[in-house]
Amino acid sequence: MAVVPFLDGQEYFGIHFDLGPGEIVAGSLVCAGSALIPDLDAKSSTITNTYGIFTRGLSALFNWMFDGHRNGTHSLLFAGLMGALTQALALWSPMAVQIFVFLLLGIAFNGLGLGSDKNSVASAVINAMATGAVTLALFTAGVDYTWIGLAVAFGCLLHFGGDMATELGVPLMWPVSKYRVGQNIGFTTDGKVERNLVTPALTISIVLLTLYLFPWPELLPEV
Q1: Helix crossing, 148-164 with 94-111: angle to 10°?
Q2: Which of 20, 8, 17, 29 lies closest to 219 in space, CA to CA?
Q3: DSSP states of 150-211 as a string?
Q4: Are 156 and 40 a contacting pair, CB within 8 Å?
Q5: What is the pLDDT of residues 126-158, one digit of tens each?
Q6: What is the DSSP string of 54-115?
Q7: Which residue, of 51, 63, 152, 193, is most buried by count of CB atoms within 10 Å of its CB?
Q8: What are phi and psi of 59, to 5 degrees?
Q9: What is the pLDDT of residue 50?
């Protein structure tokens, strides 16, 4: 949502961005799902375990292709590749994009902990129902996904930004260089700093951006 003021009404790389409320909602959710894609290289990650054997197979493939956990999948090359492949998908088939959005929303909701941890079946059903409802609502609203490649690439970059603040760092220039930006100077993943400072700060920022960007009076029905 932070980049909406820089995109709305502008044209980049031959793509004109006309972002209404539907596009802002869809873009935010697509970014949220895409921000988990780099962790497909890890066996225990949320995204790896979202769609069972399908994502576990992709995880094994990504781990092999990109030199293990937090290497190639955490590079600028990877972000650009994911964005380009998604944009090509959008140009190839609008239906394929709808399916991809559905999958990304499911990943995003799973990452947010939607459902019950005590009952995996109930959790999966709740996730699927919520994902299907939101995807159908966006489709009915006629959301234009010509920007989806940029949203996916930006989601990956957001992931890199978060990981650069951790002690392991990120090899942004892989495979040219394996130097890790932020290594040994950041906080521990899932430590006190992340739980008590980073997560609340991000949550508050998202709420404030939502209040700033959405034309709430225009969305309310007339009395």
Answers
A1: 30
A2: 20
A3: HHHHHHHHHHHHHHHTBTT-B-TTTTT----BTTTTSBPTTSHHIIIIIHHHHHHHHHHHHH
A4: no
A5: 778 888 888 888 888 888 888 888 889 988 988
A6: HHHHHHHHHHHHTTSTTSGGGSHHHHHHHHHHHHHHHHH-HHHHHHHHHHHHHHHHHHTT-S
A7: 152
A8: -60, -45
A9: 85
Asked if 210 contacts 24 with a C-beta cutoff of 8 angstroms, the reply is no
Token output for 130: 């919520």
User: What are the distances in angstroms from CA 92 to CA 80, 82, 144?
Assistant: 18, 15, 14
Task: Say if strands 15-16 and 11-12 run parallel, antiparallel, or are unpaired.
Answer: antiparallel
Q: What is the pTM of this model?
A: 0.78
Neighbours of 25 (CB within 10 A): 18
Contacts for 216 with CB less than 8 Å, ≥ 6 apart: none
Report d(CA 74, CA 119) in Å as an integer: 32
User: 166 and 15 in contact (C-beta within 8 Å)?
Assistant: no
Helix, strand, or coil (residue 12): strand
